[in-house]
Amino acid sequence: MIKIVLVGDIGSGKTHISKLFKAPYFSADLEVKKIYKNNRKCYATLRKKFPKFIKTFPIKKKELSNLIKNNLFNLKKIGQVVHPFVRKKLKTFLNKNKRKKIVLLDIPLYLENKMNKRGDVIIFLKTKKKDVNKRLKRRKNFNNNLLNILRKFQLTSKQKQKKSKYILVNDYNSANIKNKVKILKDKILNDRSSS
Asked: Which residues, at least 6 apart from 2, have a Cβ–Cβ distance to it below 8 Å?
């Protein structure tokens, strides 16, 4: 099984492009949403840690945003509680798909949390900053301050690019990117089978 991991700036199109590979796909963001909605154990731990901010179950995004805005380092503390649950889900996903040729992992902070293993295929999504910002502003609940806080915890685009095996330029043209993904997927499979 080849693990393909997409890295890039927030809003660079990782989720959309992951789906274009037409392979089993793991989204950490989606799993985190489910954990906040359904996992009482996670809620109880966060409530105990942050009783002034976490008051309701399912956990509300607004409470988490206020918690992070109150203190930047709360983001790291939230991560320490939530990441073990996400890693458990990831392990289940990888076991379930171990016979597949490739799987896609869409995990923010994959490199930052040192989750990468030898043999992982890391693809850097190269985008223009102005295109990314334009797209992010269109998102519901867009919050520029929160975005800047999240970016502070990430490696720079240059650092991510350096750690990547392939670079995929996303110009947000659907037909264009579909074609690029198909070519890259074939290349990854050929590279792996010839090594």
From this structure: 101, 102, 103, 119, 121, 188, 189, 192
Return the residue matching tokens 């930047």. 72
CA distances from 150 to 54, 105, 119 (A): 19, 19, 28
Counted residue by residue, the chain has a size of 195
Per CATH, domain 1-24+102-195 is 3.30.470.20:
no
pTM: 0.83
Task: Return the structure tokens found at 97.
Answer: 């798909």
Q: How confident is the model at residue 96 (pLDDT cuts 50, 70, 90)?
A: very high
Classify residue 80 by burial, with Cβ atoms within 10 Å: 0-12, 13-18, 19+. Answer: exposed
Domain regions of the chain by residue span? 1-24+102-195, 29-96
Task: List, in order, residues 6 or more apart from 89 with CB less than 8 Å away.
Answer: 26, 31
